[in-house]
From TrEMBL:
It is a peripheral membrane protein. One of its GO terms (biological process) is response to antibiotic. GO terms for molecular function: ATP binding; ATP hydrolysis activity. This is ABC transporter ATP-binding protein. InterPro entries: AAA+_ATPase (IPR003593), ABC_transporter-like_ATP-bd (IPR003439), ABC_transporter-like_CS (IPR017871), ABC_transporter_ATP-binding (IPR050763), P-loop_NTPase (IPR027417). The keyword Transport applies. Signal peptide: none annotated. It comes from Virgisporangium aliadipatigenens. Residues 4-229 form the ABC transporter domain. Its main location: membrane. It is found in: Cell membrane.
Length: 303
């Protein structure tokens, strides 16, 4: 049984449809990156999965339960990290962390978690007095201290410095290794590409793409091919063989750049031409589109 199973979920606010027939699943022990612009419907979908509202249509199962109807049974088994808020502003960091640990039957050991997330100097500080990054680290600790089977992380590294961001990435990887399912929303596309086993991109409430980061970037193809050979080769004949939208330049003596959406057959044409010319090729490098490139292209096309 998958940790999360969503089929045709719809969420409406009056005449506005925030989530429009979304279907997705999250296997146990995997990280799902849920990507979309502000207003794409991510928060509304997370509200359904967290049991804070019923969907207007469709079904959602979380750890085999109805997240709304079985809310009280489900809550001890999940962890939720909000992007901001959710904590009484004047409670001290150490107090709220110990309180959350007391709710769990088998909480994580507090001292290693505190040290890992760099919270020890701030245990006596009121939540309101913490910096944005410190509040994020505390929220992450609160989400995982109870050893959940499933964690919802909403922009987990927003406001964090690079060291804290990498510590968070390591912790998410360890959660996955321990069989915990993670639903991750982030605007940092390199973070999603690094951490996610699968990605769902939503735009205006609808799923516009799904797959592993490697699958999504592979479909986008190679964006640039750089070839090193002797200078001043007769490029006009090669340009005639290239499809529209592909640019060929000698950007420096002996360094040739082929730019555009380069399908496999286009790459083959380019390399075959160099071979036919008897060119002495000393280097070939390719650059694939990143997940960020794919995301921007898909959301722009669906706008």
């Amino acid at each position: 049984m998958d940790a999360v199973e969503v089929t045709g979920v719809v969420v409406r606010y009056g005449d506005t449809t925030a989530v429009d027939g979304v279907s997705l699943s999250v296997p146990r022990g995997q990280v799902l990156g849920l990507l979309g612009a502000n207003g794409a419907g991510k928060t509304s979908l997370l509200q359904v999965l967290g049991g804070f509202r019923r969907p207007d249509a469709g079904t959602a199962r979380v750890l085999g339960l109805d997240p709304f109807g079985d809310h009280d049974e489900l809550m001890p088994r999940i962890g939720v990290m909000l992007q901001s808020g959710g904590v009484y502003p004047w409670v001290r960091a150490g107090e709220i962390l110990r309180l959350f640990a007391s709710f769990a039957a088998h909480p994580l050991e507090l001292d290693p978690l505190i040290d890992r997330l760099g919270l020890r100097p701030k245990l006596g500080t009121a939540y309101k007095r913490l910096s944005g990054g410190e509040q994020q680290r505390l929220a992450l600790a609160l989400a995982v201290v109870g050893r959940p089977e499933l964690v919802f992380l909403d922009e987990p590294t927003a406001g964090m410095d690079p060291a804290a961001r990498h510590a968070t990435w390591e912790l998410i990887s360890e959660l996955r290794a321990d069989g915990v399912a993670v639903v991750l929303t982030t605007h940092l596309l390199d973070e999603a590409e690094r951490l996610s086993d699968s990605v769902v991109i939503v735009n205006k409430g609808r799923v516009v793409a799904t797959g592993t980061p490697a699958e999504l970037t592979a479909v986008a193809g190679i964006e640039r091919l750089t070839i090193r050979a002797e200078p001043d080769l007769p490029l006009a004949r090669l340009r005639e063989k290239l499809p529209d939208g592909v640019e060929l330049t000698e950007c420096a003596p002996g360094e040739y750049s082929v730019r555009g959406r380069l399908a496999t057959d286009t790459v083959a044409v380019v390399l075959s031409w160099y071979a036919a010319e008897g060119a002495h090729v000393t280097g070939v490098n390719s650059e694939r589109r990143t997940l960020e490139d794919v995301y921007l292209a898909l959301t722009k096309a669906a706008a």
